[in-house]
Amino acid sequence: MDNMLGDLYKPDDGDDFYSKKYRDELENVSFQLLEEITDGFSESRELGRGSFGVVYRGLTKNGDYVAVKKLHANVTDLNHKQFQNELYNLAKLKHENIVRIYGYCYEIKKTFMEHDRRKILVEEPRIALCLEYLHNGSLQDHISDEFSGLDWDTRYRIMEGVCRGLYHIHRNLKKPLYHLDLKPANILLSKTMQPKLADFGLSRIFRNEELTRTTKSPLGTLGYQPPEYIERGEVSEKFDIFSLGVVMIHLVSGRGGFERYACMHSEEFINQVKTNWRKRFKQLQRNSLRKVKVYCHEVETCTRIALNCVEKDTQKRPDIDMVINNLKDQYLDK
């Protein structure tokens, strides 16, 4: 970011335990600077709220926008160095479909408060992340049914981009990373509607021998959690695949798509979605009969992929390689 956040950048004091490459690329930013660029964390700058914190739009001295995620004080029990280490792992996730981390703030504010008629020293962590700003907000703001909103080409490109981002974290890292909270609100869109995965706050980096495990910690969002997690607390890469399937169903059929699917047979749902899209395609005079046929084939293929992703049996659920290959095969069939 070429020190985009300004001259209040605070270089680390050095620690060979961390990779110098990623340490140099992440800015350690003062809380004071974050207050300045967000107008004191003003409500007018607020972009969204989540269980882990509030996101604000910051404007740097260079005139560039940055997203500032101010985390709740109790969001982590990691100390400063552990927190840095996690961030350096995330900083390695350089991919066109993953939101960039530019910098972070981890400061301890010490104040005195009265307790049992005595003044005690209280330490309050002030933690924040500086992230790439995406001008078109989240996918959640653009979800609509088959008859309105985003056109099919845009929806298809979003599905492709989300899949590429997942492929990168599942396959291209030394230790696979699972998102574990994939949903439209965590898929941000650039000016050109390029999707980028965001909010890896719930992610866990597993070693190869830990690709499946059980956990009692709450992960994900209701409606996007797979049945094996809800019933047994089981976590694997198939967690993300199930969430991907729900997202794709929303993209092909709107907010109520998953509920519609739950109330009918798979083939009936696929035919309904395809019929609805065919009506929209035919309304556009520029679409020839051949183009309508190609689009309808894409709709059917993407809907089938989505339904396979939400299979209750994890063994029947595809991995991200299969999803990508099915999308590629469809492209080659055009």
TrEMBL record:
Keywords: ATP-binding, Kinase, Nucleotide-binding, Serine/threonine-protein kinase, Transferase. SMART domains: S_TKc. The keyword Nucleotide-binding applies. Coiled coil: none annotated. ATP binds at residue 70. It catalyses: L-seryl-[protein] + ATP = O-phospho-L-seryl-[protein] + ADP + H(+); L-threonyl-[protein] + ATP = O-phospho-L-threonyl-[protein] + ADP + H(+). PROSITE patterns: PROTEIN_KINASE_ATP (PS00107), PROTEIN_KINASE_DOM (PS50011), PROTEIN_KINASE_ST (PS00108). GO terms for molecular function: ATP binding; protein serine/threonine kinase activity. Its EC number is 2.7.11.1. It comes from the Eukaryota. Residues 41-332 form the Protein kinase domain. It holds the Pfam family Pkinase. The keyword ATP-binding applies. InterPro entries: Kinase-like_dom_sf, Prot_kinase_dom, Protein_kinase_ATP_BS, Ser/Thr_kinase_AS. Belongs to the protein kinase superfamily. This is non-specific serine/threonine protein kinase. It comes from Zea mays.
